Amino acid sequence: MTRKSGYALLTALVAVAALACTAILMGTGALGSGLRRPGSVPQIHATADPAAAGSWTGTWAAAPATAEPGTPQGRPGMSIRDVVHTSIGGNAARIELSNLFGTAPLILTHVTLARAAAPGSPSASPGSLTALGFAGLPVVTIPAGGSVLSDPVRLAVPAATDLLITLYTPYTSGPVTYHPTARQTSYLAYGDHAGDTDGTAFTIPSPYWRYVTAVDVWTPGLHGTVVAFGDSITDGITSTVGADHRWPDFLTARLGERPDLPRMGVLDEGISGNRVLADAAPTAPWDGPSALRRFGRDVLSRAGVKVVIVELGINDIIETPHQTDAQAIIDGLRQLTREAHAHGIRVLGGTITPFEGLHGYTPALDAVREDVNAAIRAGTVFDAVVDFDRALRDPHHPDHLLPAFDSGDHLHPTDAGYEAMAQAVNLQDLLGSAPASL
């Protein structure tokens, strides 16, 4: 579904939401708040609710990577308007906020959610801006290292639509938890403008997502959530800003074009520079914790997850210290599969894409990639294979990206390359249950 078609559905969804959500939101049993107070376990486990009225499904997410540089006191006295793009629509919504990399409690005094008036706009669609509460209160304190799930609100959320999530605090706090590679323009304003429908106060553009880590929607008839779990290639680091041209976005579009398949939300949990085995180096904290360490946080805790698509391993090989033991990477990927299976989640795994021409390339490092890919293609690592390598490589020079798919650094794809990656996913492989073991 295109962005324009998502907005075209708005009028119909508003009418549906008014009827469908009244009964849902009368009580908090099915949709209860996920507030985590100081001293409680900060991890949110927002699994799908089997209530007959519908279920929670993830429509958008971003993995918190590190603390934003230059924000030792947070962003006091500023409104942060994060712009995020939905994958699936629903009749009610809730958001997750994270203070994972903060060093002090974050006190938010005003939080709102709205549909954007137009793609990428800081202005809200008239009548859509809604104040969010937390355990029935308009103010929430998120402890350092913690996260919080908002109370649900009635809001018609179309698929393929931009939402505005606006946060304000007048207080100092620790460093801002953020996702640095948004490929989406968000906005800042001085003062409390969280309740503004007009976006004119938001004069400071920003390339980051701050504090917001997930948006879930409540709706009947959804099959669940697909999580794309990976590194900069999943993060879409070279995709066109504001165009929603990461490969998970193209996968969302493919699913929207197939009425014969169950409707599924798609979440992008990529972190640029991420590795399977090693945490970020102190010199590059934005690379995030290792995939093994963050899998529970960024995959298992997401709402309604049925399938995860893993795209990882290249940074283990090319970043120093180089991981030259292919078996170690393979074992790490198998561990992700075992953890997913323990939660009934099916795992699709991508082969590692070519990188000859990249600074630091050596045939010995490429041999490690080939060994990992051989194990993946043999079917001993994941439930099904997505051959990203075959989709992107130059058939005449298979250690290179196809020129049309090479962004210029010989590692990251162009928009066309990201679309080719999404086309490589067999949509039928998203269905079915996870086996107990490979």
From TrEMBL:
Pfam families: Lipase_GDSL_2 (PF13472). It comes from the Bacteria. Residues 1-20 form the signal peptide. Gene3D superfamilies: SGNH hydrolase. Keywords: Signal. Residues 228-420 form the SGNH hydrolase-type esterase domain. CDD domains: XynE_like. PROSITE patterns: PROKAR_LIPOPROTEIN. PANTHER family: GDSL-LIKE LIPASE/ACYLHYDROLASE, PUTATIVE (AFU_ORTHOLOGUE AFUA_2G00820)-RELATED, GDSL-LIKE LIPASE_ACYLHYDROLASE, PUTATIVE (AFU_ORTHOLOGUE AFUA_2G00820)-RELATED. This is GDSL-type esterase/lipase family protein. It comes from Streptomyces humicola.
